[in-house]
Fold:
Amino acid sequence: MSPRKSAAEARHTRERIIERSVAVASVEGLEGLTIGRLATDLGISKSGLLGHFGTKEALQIAALRRASEIFTRAVWVPAAGAAPGLTRLTAICEAWVTYLDREREAFPGGCLFTASAVEFDGREGPVRDAVARLYTVWRRRLTRDIRAAVELGELPPGTDPEQLVFELNGIYFALNHSVQLFGDRTAPDRARRALRRVLR
Structure:
C-alpha cells in the first residue's frame, strides 16, 4: 500500500469515527463516547480507534468541533450574507429553529451543544472549556447583530444585547427540550412566536 493511500484511508477512518461520535453523543452525551462502543459500531479495533485520538477526551473535543462545523453550516452560513442587524439576526433565528429537523441524521438525539452544556456545565476540564468557548463564539455573533440592529434603529435604543442573547438562547433551549423530551410538533412555531416577540 502506498503512503498516500494509507494516509487517505486513515483520514477516512478518522472521519467515520468523528461522524459516529457526534451521532452517539447527541443521544447519549459526550460521556457515552466509549472506545469499545465506537470500535464495535464501526468494526475497527479499540487500539486502531485510540490511535486516531489518543484519549477519550480528545475524541469528545473532536466531536464537539465537528458539531460546531455542522451547526455553522446549517445556521450561520445561510444567514452570513444577509444585511447586518435585524435582517441577519432574523435569518439566523429562523435557521436556528429549523436546524434540528435539517440535521436529524447528524444529531438524532437533538442539539449536541444543548446536551453538552447541560452535561458539562458543572464540571471542570478541557471538554467543559471547549463547550464554553463554542458558546462564547455564538453569543458574540448574536451580540454583534443585536448591536448593529440598535445602531440602525431596528431595535429600541435601550436594548441590552446581553439580555437579548440570554433570551434567545433560552428560547432555543426550550425548543430543543420540547422537541426531544415531549416530541412537541408545535414547538418550532412556539419558538418562532417567542422570537418575534423579543425581536420586535
Observations:
- The chain has nine helices and no strands.
- Residues 42 and 147 are 46 Å apart (CA to CA).
- The chain has a mean pLDDT of 90.
- Residues 3-28 form the longest helix (26 residues).
